[in-house]
Amino acid sequence: xxxxxxxxxxxxxxxxxxxxxxxxxxxxxxxxxxxxxxxxxxxxxxxxxxxxxxxxxxxxxxxxxxxxxxxxxxxxxxxxxxxxxxxxxxxxxxxxxxxxxxxxxxxxxxxxxxxxxxxxxxxxxxxxxxxxxxxxxxxxxxxxxxxxxxxxxxxxxxxxxxxxxxxxxxxxxxxxxxxxxxxxxxxxxxxxxxxxxxxxxxxxxxxxxxxxxxxxxxxxxxxxxxxxxxxxxxxxxxxxxxxxxxxx
Length: 248
Ligand code: 13P
Description:
The chain is of the alpha/beta class. The protein is built from eleven helices and eight strands. It has an eight-stranded parallel β-barrel with strand order 1-2-3-4-5-6-7-8, surrounded by five helices. Strand 2, helix 2 and strand 3 form a beta-alpha-beta unit. Helix 5 packs across helix 7. The longest helix is centred in the middle third of the chain and has 16 residues. 1,3-dihydroxyacetonephosphate (13P) binds next to strand 8.
């Protein structure tokens, strides 16, 4: 049985004050989330503060991106070792906003995935198709290509120590959630693709769904066989909305 994980991706949001309120609110509600794992991914600069706030609260901590390099002359970058040093367990790689707004390629994402794992971080590898790719019937090709970049560089076994997040780009921040059946179809495709290479890894890897998840639709999404939790954007920014998903 795979454990359910609900992770909040705060993106470019928050202040010291709002984040203190948010994390305290989540910590206070943790008794209601049952056996689920919960994690939050703040902007880099707030990670040390959140590390202090989550101490003893059973809330995991992740970053939203990471450098593909270890150290040196890479202005503006933050390394996996630094993230580990300040208390992260997870790092999101290949989020569609990194891919589409900042031009990150499949190979860049794969290099970040490897950099994170090398330091013992659990990569949350995001994959997902654009609306036009779905409409052209290309969803599985796109997701397969994004996964293959990582499998080719790091090996399929590496996915035993990773999390995959399927986030259809057309469902992110749009209020248009994939239906549980639409999401399950792609999750099953992902697990089947991995199973063709290694059945044990496929059985073990957590595959999260992301894209307009909220307290009203989380339960039916998480009930699907191959959906092992969610990566939450907008609804992770208040403790009420986030806890409604965590307790779903
Ligand atoms: P929303 O939940 O705001 O649609 O964002 C999803 C997402 O991109 C999480 O990484």
